[in-house]
Amino acid sequence: MKKFVVLHVIEKLNDEEGGLYNIVENLCRFLPKVKSVVLTDKIKDKEILNNFKCSIFKINSFLKLFFFIKDYKYNVIHIHGIWSPINTFVPILAILFNKPFIISPQGMLEPWALSFKKIKKIFFLHFIWKFIFLKSKKIIFTSNQEYKNFKKLNIIQNYNFEVIPNGFYIEGKNDIVKNKKKINKLLFLSRIHKKKGIEILIEVFKELNPPSWNLEIIGTGEKKFVEKLKQKSGKNFINKKIFFLGFKNSHQKKKYFKSSDIFVLPSYSENFGIVVPEALSFGVPVLTTKSTPWKDLKENNCGWWINTGKVSLKKTLKKIFILNQKQISKMRIKAKRLSKNYEWPKVAKKFENTYYKLNNL
Fold this sequence. Notes:
This protein has two domains: 4-167 and 343-360, Glycogen Phosphorylase B (Rossmann fold, 3-Layer(aba) Sandwich); 184-342, Glycogen Phosphorylase B (Rossmann fold, 3-Layer(aba) Sandwich). α11 (296-299) links the parallel β14 and β15 (303-306). It is globular and about 65 Å long. α2 (62-71) packs across α3 and α10 crosses α13. The chain is an alpha/beta fold. The protein is built from 14 helices and 15 strands. The longest helix has 18 residues, at 118-135.
């Protein structure tokens, strides 16, 4: 019996950007009953291909793309993200050749994302993507929040959809490590972008200047913006209490999670935020905003779910910086427990069921 073939379409394969890359990589890893194939038009480097145990096709010619979608043998196409040329052309070609496809917007239709190049995006939504969404077999949202925001756009009225959270995968053991240090660590690990609230985090940390805490910042971003943040940190803090540690791959970042006391992601917009369950899996309580779908943190007493902006962040960090290790330890156990709901083997099963059900749609 031939395996069910899923063609994953993603604009670029770049592990430094996390998010979409991690999703596609892990769907290929945790769907043993499904044959995964990846189609992209940009690859960071050849080494990144070692992370995949499936076929990868890099096509950046429309003519080649035309014949690939027409002739390649697959059961369904899964589009990850929108806006990019390949993510737009593939579903249009799929419609032309009557091939089934599903779409995961992955936060690209969230209010924050739409506020940039707004006129251009609204035009494409109503004159191109409206047609694509209408013809899709299903739209997959990562959270109820993302679904509600899509519904508010009023692009189409009737459509099949499903809410499936993204998952996380950490290779090896990630046991809770007791803090025996005199200095506590506040960890920010994400793409360094204005959307992530990193500027106000640095401002608040400097203003509070907690005596027994350091701030570690892991990730990459636009060079000018990163340099601006380093200058903003100031000579009294940079490499003394605020550390810019650059990009760390999936193996390297484990030691930073293990040595951290609190993880912080003060984002202005996040359709999911894979790094949140990653941190929780190491027993690290998480502070994030109500612009992310992480209400679970508050309900499970393993973190803080606050309003966006400087005022709420400062108020909450002030409370965190006076917590003792006994209080943090209680939250660590609950954090670890919550993370198990988002492990990729569990999440992948939901995708697998969705793929197979498409035959009946």
